[in-house]
Every structure is written in structure tokens, then in C-alpha cells.
Design brief:
Layout: H1 2-68, H2 75-82, H3 90-96
Amino acid sequence: MELNQQCENKVNELQTQLNELQKNNQITIQVIHQLDIERENLSTKQQEQQKELLECRKIYFNYLCKEFGLKEEDHNRFYEYCLKLPPQQWKQFVIENK
């Protein structure tokens, strides 16, 4: 009878541990799912900000070209190059290449 009781106690203990692990696993799954959602939202927001930044840079570059008389046929060629530079250097670059 004593052995039977010990086995039953051990089964109960293991069942309690299993229940706790399952609960923790479910919480982990929920956290991972929420993090995936937040990462996707952040990625979308970053893409929108990047698109907005590129548009602002294009406007600024076109302004510099008009302001300093860079030939229109050179705009696209120099714009691709200017994207590799910090915008602070664009004005000097446009002036030097007009």
C-alpha cells in the first residue's frame, strides 16, 4: 500500500509539473506571437519612414539642382550618387558638378 501511495504522489507531482510547463509554454507562444505582430508593425513603419525620407531627399536634390543650375540630364545620374552621401554634402556636390 505504501508503494502504491508513493506512486500516486509521484504521478500527481509530475502532473502538476506538466500542467505548469504547458501553461508556461502557452504563455511563451502568446508572447512570441505578440512579438511577431510588433516586429511586422515596426517593419511596416520603417518602410513607410524610409519611403518618406527618400521622397524628401528627392525633393531636396531637385531643389538643389534648380537652385544651382545642374543640367536636367544629369539629375538622375547624380541623384543615385548623392543617395550614398549624407544630405549635408549634397549642396557642395551639386555646386561642383553644375
